[in-house]
Design goal:
This protein has 118 residues and is an all-alpha fold. Helix content is 73%, strand content 0%. Helix 1 packs across helix 3, helix 2 packs across helix 3 and helix 2 crosses helix 4.
Length: 118
């Protein structure tokens, strides 16, 4: 199993920014150094389980919010993230995104079928 530290770091940054929190404040709340937070957000470092739990607690989110692409049973979190994205969309935006999703999914499935059959 490969852990995507860059994706996790981006989610840490996004959650921190959603809460209008500075890296310094996150470092204080999680009892980590500001350098550690910076390196985690950039995906430049591996982190320990206690560190990611401390960050999740400081951000008042669950760990699966940060690790959702690593955990096999994280479909619920992906659905939450998608719901958050769609939360403030207009009717026109919903229509556009629905069309994009349908097309992307059809293309992805066709590609997967070609890969299976080759």
């Amino acid at each position: 199993m490969k852990i995507d530290y860059i994706a996790i770091g981006k989610r840490v940054r996004n959650e921190r920014e959603k809460k209008n929190m500075s890296q310094m404040r996150l470092a204080e709340l999680s009892d980590l150094s500001i350098n550690s937070i910076s390196h985690i957000e950039c995906g430049n470092t591996k982190f320990s389980l206690p560190s990611i739990v401390a960050i999740a607690n400081a951000l008042n989110i669950t760990v699966d919010c940060l690790l959702m692409d690593v955990v096999d049973n994280s479909l619920i979190q992906f659905k939450r993230e998608l719901a958050d994205i769609l939360d403030d969309c207009s009717k026109e935006e919903y229509t556009l995104l629905a069309d994009i999703c349908k097309t992307a999914l059809q293309t992805y499935r066709k590609l997967q079928n070609k890969l299976k059959n080759s």
